[in-house]
Predict the structure.
Amino acid sequence: MSVLCVIPARGGSKRIGRKNVRDFAGEPMLAHALTAVLQSEAFDTVHVSTEDEEISAVAAKYGAPPDFARPASLGDDHTPIRDVVKAAVAEYAARGRMFDTVALVYATAVLIEADDLRAALQAFAAAPENPLLSVVDAGTPLERLMVEEGGVLRPVSPGQFANRSQDLSAAYRDAGAFAVFSAETLRADTDGAQALAFRPFLLPRWKGVDIDTEEDWRFAEIIKAGLAAVSGEFS
């Protein structure tokens, strides 16, 4: 099985400017996910998809110089992330390099570890007809979730809100860490904005910080610092 890892890392992030090269726990943010990918030794090729020279330099410094630049047309806020991955797969195919399996790893996945990626690829290989998505438990049963309507909170499932927690449905959210696809699934994907029939790969909740805001960033920093403190205490 030939496996490609694509790490999208564009330069024009808006909510957190230049987040992919901003310092996080002493290294550029991109370096954390990239290091986990390389340490896993699970991928035949690792490609950081970027149109940005500074990000390319960081990728090269940490061991994965991009084989080619991302087209500028795929660098805006509205391009579905799967389209970026598909473009990388197509470019490799044009260069005569074919892959059976393709992993998308987010540059902001600063808390994942090499073992997570190895385990995910093993789980995917057991049933490759459906892509795999990293998720975490939402921490609240589905029927206990609430939405705001007219300035007040309304339960999603009013008739079940008072039921015992053990009688309710577990809810999951995208961990913002990685996904795994067969190349065949990506070739058949004509609309990168549509949901696919993903199978879940459950990560510990603390690894699922999807860093889109400064609050997310700070939360991830606190977790990283805590992990470092625990590691130092028991080393």
